[in-house]
Input
Amino acid sequence: MAEEILKMVNITKRFAGITALDQVQFSCSKGEIHVLAGENGAGKSTILKMLAGIHQADEGEIYFHGKKVDIRSPEQSQRMGIAMVFQELTLVGEMTVWENIYLNQEPVTRLGRINKKEIKGRIREAMDRYGIHIDPDAMVSSLSVAQQQMAEILKILVRDPELIILDEPTSALARKEVRQLCQIIRNLIAGGKTIIFISHRMEEVFELGDRITVFKDGHYIGTRNMTEINEDDLIRMMVGRSLENIFPPAVCQVDESQVIFEVKNLTDTASKVNHVSFQVHKGEILGVAGLQGHGQTELLNAISGLHPLAGGEILVGGSPVNVKNSARAIESGIALVPADRKNQGLMLELSNRHNLAISSMKKRMKGCFIDKKAEQEFGEAMKEKLSIKMGSLELPVSSLSGGNQQKVVLGKELATEPRVILFDEPTRGIDVEAKREFYQIMHDLAARGVAVVMNSSDMMEIMGMSSRVIVMYEGRVSGILKKEELSEERIMQLGMGMDKSRKEGEAS
Output
């Protein structure tokens, strides 16, 4: 038996009263690749950030090499020999590779100058040892995403860590680049490292993993040797919860003969969205599903004019529209309720009234001036319509709860009288009561003939609200599911690129 290098016992973590991890277990042995699996929101990143010193457990114990430890900071974690490569790149684009790798810990000469020769020597030694080859003098902004990922890995390898955490390292990589990274991972294991690996790509999990631990909704499900399970077994461990009675029934029938919104062969300039096509019929809510990082948010951003398009066509009510920017999208009747309400949807220090009114301000202007009385009446009407609980329209929107903030974002977009409304993770971070209110509003919009498109990483939400679902994998539509075909297992299969029977195509 290999030495147990890490053991985490009865770990519990809460955020603002929400339990992210509940009495979970996790351990790994020296020299293994241990896969941590689960749906979005299962708690994988939370427990790994505890090892990295970013979060601390509310309850439970951590043992490293058999010794109980209390990891209070990233610096302490690094000194212990633990390093984490995050899914989101942390490099500074305006600096070179070597400057990023040794940022804030540069060795110096006797004269106090940065010892560039020593730095580059250490970097080349690590590159030769693990098979990573990039130019240390290259500006990070000039590198491809794959090369930047390699630089992130080099950044931790020069510190010679013992335990390496890789959180979705392949999510932004093409297949050729994934193969290169897999070889680097094998080289790391051959060099005596231990790896904790998160990936939603089944082929990587089974190709690389020695053991796998599954979390679900913040709970520990089990640990298996990879030789003991197959893909179907793993999916059954990851899914299987029942739908709760929180989703209101649809208020109208879908009219499949009437297409009110259509996207044809849409491709963005960042290659996150590749030749995506779908239709929305009158009365339906179209769900967009898939595992994190496969282009769902980028698709909605491209449709709403936030990301530039490289090709394709968008039609509202059968007529092509030009969405070269967000202003043109709004003029064309397309509205977006973004996933990140605080950074993308609201101006937190401005009033509730101002936030509600900003997108439709021109409707209440007299010449160059805003009609304050009309704006006040509009704010009161929207507050009443959406049941927004607030002390006053003049208080800052930051004073509201998460659910009421989300209603303000929705009210701001509804004020533009959209013909198409895109919801990106619409109920993230809001309570059950607010969710049900949001769901009813979405059904009402669909019944009024507004095209409703909803991206959500919550499978219960997708299954409970959608008339049909398009599932995305690596920036493309991997499958289209009707209401009667929806199941967590089916969505998971398509979201991992496992279904070879369906061709990429148009949702019609």
The first strand starts at residue 4 and ends at 15. Confidence is low (pLDDT under 50) at residues 502-507.
